[in-house]
């Protein structure tokens, strides 16, 4: 509890500093009608997270996996494995599962994960997770978190690649939004890979990329970029509403 108090105090101070400096993290969704643009602020009701490299530290070397599988650049690894048949398909997925098992043995939580999840819960925001990994990786993550009271209660959804189609298809995110009864535009997708950003964009949600040393090429595709989980709380607390500069779809008009 003391850690949470310090966390919230820190972000109150950061918010005060942001306002004093006149800096804004907000962007506006523009609904174009003729020659005029009418900015519309979009409130956030839920946050959906990726797992590896987002809520946990990045330990998986996907370049090595791609090389071992002989999967060409630009081809989705899961799609590549699914494109095979019989024994080849079985062996490809076995390599992926062994790769993931090695990653699970080295899994560590991302700094600030307890504080952020608790903060979001206490702010009344829904929380969920979408991963392209197996359930075993989710179970490992939950084991590291411990009792749900440690992070503001259980997440509402924990979708793995067993939910198809997987990211970057928007289907898992749209499924969560439907279950929540929330429009996708009122949901934020947070991840460290282009798959996460594409999933969020195609669903019509706000996207946040958690920067690391390997994903610099993805920054331009996300609506927001943050260097640590703490900054997500800052984004939310620094504005009454989270919004994004994107033309509204017909369902938004």
Automatic annotation (TrEMBL):
Pfam families assigned to the protein according to its UniProt record, in alphabetical order: HAD_2
Annotated transmembrane regions: none
UniProt xrefs under NCBIfam families: HAD-SF-IA-v1, HAD-SF-IA-v3
Xref: PANTHER family: HALOACID DEHALOGENASE-LIKE HYDROLASE (PTHR43885), SUPERFAMILY HYDROLASE, PUTATIVE (AFU_ORTHOLOGUE AFUA_4G13290)-RELATED (PTHR43885:SF1)
Protein name: Uncharacterized protein
Organism: Desmophyllum pertusum
């Amino acid at each position: 509890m003391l850690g949470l108090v310090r966390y919230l105090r820190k972000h109150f101070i950061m918010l005060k500093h942001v306002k004093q400096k006149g800096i804004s993290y907000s962007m506006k969704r523009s609904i174009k009608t003729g020659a005029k643009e009418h900015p519309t602020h979009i409130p956030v009701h839920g946050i959906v997270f990726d797992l590896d490299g987002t809520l946990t530290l990045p330990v998986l070397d996907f370049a090595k996996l791609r090389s071992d599988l002989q999967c060409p650049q630009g081809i989705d690894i899961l799609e590549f494995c699914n494109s095979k048949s019989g024994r080849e398909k079985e062996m490809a997925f076995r390599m992926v599962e062994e790769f993931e098992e090695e990653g699970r043995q080295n899994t560590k939580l991302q700094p600030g994960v307890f504080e952020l999840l608790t903060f979001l819960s206490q702010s009344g925001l829904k929380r969920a997770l979408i991963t392209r990994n197996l359930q075993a990786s989710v179970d490992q993550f939950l084991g590291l978190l411990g009792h749900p009271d440690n992070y503001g209660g259980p997440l509402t959804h924990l979708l793995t690649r067993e939910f198809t189609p997987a990211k970057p298809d928007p289907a898992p995110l749209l499924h969560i939004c439907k279950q929540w009864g929330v429009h996708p535009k009122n949901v934020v997708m947070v991840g460290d890979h282009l798959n996460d950003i594409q999933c969020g964009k195609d669903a019509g949600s706000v996207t946040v990329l958690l920067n690391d040393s390997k994903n610099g090429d993805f920054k331009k595709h996300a609506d927001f970029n943050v260097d640590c989980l703490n900054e997500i709380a800052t984004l939310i607390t620094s504005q009454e509403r989270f919004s994004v500069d994107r033309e509204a779809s017909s369902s938004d008009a």
